[in-house]
Amino acid sequence: MFSELLQLKNDLPQKLVQEWNWALLKDTKPDVAGQIRRQGVRISGSEYVPPSPVELQALLNEFFAWYNRAKASLNPVELAALVHFKFVTIHPFSDGNNRVSRLMMNYVLNRHGYPMFNVEYKGRLAYYRALERSQLSKDGRAFTRWFFRRYIRGSRRFLE
């Protein structure tokens, strides 16, 4: 299934992302695995409130259209950071949104020949703060700045 989806002209279709969420949750939460959520959610410890379920498909359509335009003009590192930020802000799944958005980010980096990026557990609080600042301001700059600094620092060992 994955290999078939990767051959598509649209290299990051919604169906592939839903397959990733399904693979992630099928054993622990089979009732919601791979499905766009149908209920409102809150993010524990965050002031950011994700969009309502009725908004999700339009936001996802907009996101994937943006991605297909942006991949031709943005630097792959910036594209990866924005893919992560924009997708996790939509928060389309009941669970696994951060994990899937990090997978998407690394998929973009890897597809362009760049080293992948690990959000380390010890730096997770700064990651969540940068993400929330960007979500609340509806401006991805705080997150992309955080991402660029960490990505450059983490990638040096691969570049040397």
Task: Please tag this protein with its features.
single chain; 160 residues; mainly alpha; Fic-like fold
Overall description:
The chain has seven helices and no strands. Helix content is 61%, strand content 0%. The protein has 160 residues and is mostly helical. The protein starts with a helix and ends with a helix. The protein is globular. The longest helix is centred in the last third of the chain and has 19 residues, at 141-159. It has one domain: Fido-like domain (Fic-like fold), CATH 1.10.3290.10.
CATH topology: Fic-like fold
In which range does the helix fraction lie?
55-70%
What count of domains describes the coordinates? 1
User: Regarding quaternary structure, how should these chains be classified?
Assistant: single chain
CATH superfamily grouping: Fido-like domain
Order of helices and strands: HHHHHHH
- How many strands appear in the DSSP assignment? 0
| Average pLDDT for all residues | 92
Low-pLDDT stretches are: none
In DSSP terms, counting alpha (H) and pi (I) runs of 4 or more, how many helices?
A: 7
Short synopsis of the structure:
The chain is an all-alpha fold and 160 residues long. The protein is built from seven helices and no strands.
Q: How would you summarize the topology of this molecule?
A:
Elements (H helix, E strand, L loop, with lengths): L1 H5 L7 H12 L27 H18 L5 H15 L6 H15 L12 H14 L3 H19 L1
Helix pairs in contact: 2-5, 3-4, 4-5, 4-7, 6-7
